[in-house]
Every structure is written in C-alpha cells, then in structure tokens.
Write a structure and sequence with these properties.
Length: 240
C-alpha cells in the first residue's frame, strides 16, 4: 500500500546519527469526542561538544512583532509568522488576527514544532487557504509534524533550498496508526481530502499521505524542499 523509493528513504534515514532520544506525548479530543494521543521520539544529534539539536522543541530566535495572537506573531501589515505549536484555540486566534490586520498576505514558518490538536489544525489550514495567504519557509527553517499541513495550505508556497520538513504517522489512544484502518476509513480519507483541497492531484495526495505514514509515530522522517516539491507545487525558493 505504501511504496516509496528505497533510495529516498535510505538518504533520509542516514542524514545524521542519533546520539540520544527525547520522548514527548500530546493528547487531544476531536469534534466527534474521540480521544487521540501522539507520542514523538525526538533524535538529539551531537554537533559539537556542549551543543545539541532537539527537533521536537522550537529554538527559533525571538520574532520581532507588533502584535501576538496565540501562536501567531504579526511582523507588519502584510506579514505574520507562526512561532509556536497550534492548538484548539488557534483557528480563533487566526481569525482574530485577520480581523485586526486584514492586510496580512504571507505567513512565515521559521521553526514550527506542530500541533496539539489535529482537527483544529486542519481547520486552520483551510482558513489559511480561504484567506488567500501565502506560506514561506525562510533559510534554515524547520517545519515539523502538523505544521507541514499548514505550510501546504498556502495559496503560494515557497521554501528555501535548505528548509527541512519532518513527517510521521499519527497514533490514537489505543495505539492504532493509519495502517490499522482501511485505506477508505474516514480517519485516513480526512487527510487525503485535505491534501486534495490544498491543490494536490489525487495521485500525489495519496502518495504524500503514504510517505508521511512510512515511518511509525515514534520516529521522524526528514524531507527537504526538493522532496516536498515532488508532491506539492512550490514557487521559487525563498530568498532567491
């Protein structure tokens, strides 16, 4: 069901050796009352004595902003940045931001760890698309887990050549992952439908969902801008 180029998987799996692991868990209840739990194992890579890189936490520099709305920072009249994980309140935060700053046209994603509420996150993505907002990952940007769906929501999407994206399978409270459900089960179709709504053709929507599920929830698959461009149309790389 999930066929991916072995060479791509080998390349991504060998990007860097793990020196240690950090495990984080997040839980949420969707609109149907179903309780979900996602556990992420973060690889910590020793780059030099005394330093480490933890992909599960945001270490982006402070964004200079003129206003804050939940995880969103308003940079100026036409630009905002996502600076933290999203949650159940994020769609309302986004709506409030646009009411106060209706001229915002670009959402920057610098160091985005993901979401603690997948249902709200997909709703937020559709709001970004409906508002006609572009998404951009600048040089050195890192977009992980549920934040990838928000990047894909941009009406125009751009990412620097060195931008990185982390994906993995979801996990419910009973320990089930996508492959434990039929391919046409509502929980699986919801993501494919979302990717279709974000502009992917049927083949790419299914292939990208398969890619995100090619590693279990407790692992992370790293992608880079050219990898993502195989599935979703991107504009010229950020900063070029």
């Amino acid at each position: 069901m999930r066929r991916i180029l072995p060479a791509l998987l080998l390349l991504l799996a060998c990007v860097a050796p793990a020196a240690a692991q950090q495990v984080t868990t997040r839980s949420w209840t969707d609109e149907r009352g179903v309780r979900w739990t996602e556990t992420t194992t973060v690889e910590v890579v020793e780059e030099e004595p005394g330093s480490e890189r933890v992909v599960g936490l945001s270490d982006a520099p402070e964004v200079r902003s003129v206003a804050r709305f939940g995880p969103f920072a308003v940079i100026d009249g036409s630009h905002a940045a996502l600076v933290a994980e999203t949650d159940s309140l994020s769609p309302a935060d986004f709506a409030a931001m646009l009411r106060a700053w209706p001229g915002i046209r670009t959402l920057e994603l610098v160091d985005c760890p993901g979401t603690v509420d997948d249902t709200a996150n997909l709703r937020l993505g559709r709001m970004i698309r409906a508002a006609g907002i572009a998404t951009d990952v600048p040089a050195g940007g890192s977009v992980r887990s549920g934040a990838v769906e928000l990047f894909l929501a941009g009406t125009h999407r751009s990412a620097a050549p060195d931008a990185e994206f982390a994906v993995h399978a979801w996990l419910d409270e009973e320990g089930r992952q996508p492959q434990d459900f039929g391919p046409d089960a509502p929980v699986n179709r919801a993501y494919i439908t979302y990717y279709r709504d974000m502009g992917m053709d049927p083949a790419n929507a299914s292939a990208f969902y398969a890619l995100t599920n090619s590693v279990p929830n407790r692992q992370v698959l790293w992608l880079h801008t050219p990898d993502l461009a195989r599935y979703a149309m991107l504009d010229s790389p950020s900063g070029l």
